[in-house]
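2024-03-11 09:14:02 DEBUG pipeline.ingest accepted 1 chain
2024-03-11 09:14:02 DEBUG pipeline.ingest length=217
2024-03-11 09:14:03 DEBUG pipeline.predict start
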Amino acid sequence: MSTNRYFQIEEQKLLLEAEKIALFTNHNPTIGSYREAVLRRYIRQFVPRGLKVGSGFVSRNENAIDLTEGQSRQIDVLIYNDSNYQPILEAEGFVVIRPESLIGVIEVKSNLTFYKNYKANNSHKIDDKYPLGGGGSPAYRWSGTMVEALKNIQACSEAYKPRKTGYFSGVLAYQSEFNIHNLYHALDNNELQEQLGINHLRQLPTAICTIGKSFIM
């Protein structure tokens, strides 16, 4: 059997498992939570001993008065090493971990979308919510589940900032509905960086993948 065929089988396993929940409900938050759990369970089969897979937050925990200071947003998949640093908080797969133990983060989306969201009445006046365009063009911002995933990846990088070593960060989708060239355009023209306040490569994901469809490094 070829390597390609092996990975095709693995792709189908993930997609079919993710599809099951839609037979029972059309409640999007439930569908999303189930598909995140499917990916966590899948990854656990392949991580080396000593690594764990959960969901939760990365926290620098530097402020005894406000523990949320320096904390990431909630991450769908956290891969971490608890051999030297015990989680700050842990319960049934939910964790708050220290930056020192972080190995990888993945944001999971049922459907990856990315599109321009124009200001009401096609106003040309830019502001904090619609920072792009202006002048001779309507003001707009980039929206969709891709932007939400990028915000979480960015927030995690800020919580991790004091560390010198790196970690893997990715966005994985079970399906996608966007033109990949729009993403290239938004990055090449510094639009996403301007909108989200991104100023370093570490604030962007290492990889973006739609299972069986596309893979961007």
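2024-03-11 09:14:41 DEBUG pipeline.report The CA atoms of residues 55 and 94 lie 5 Å apart.
2024-03-11 09:14:41 DEBUG pipeline.predict end
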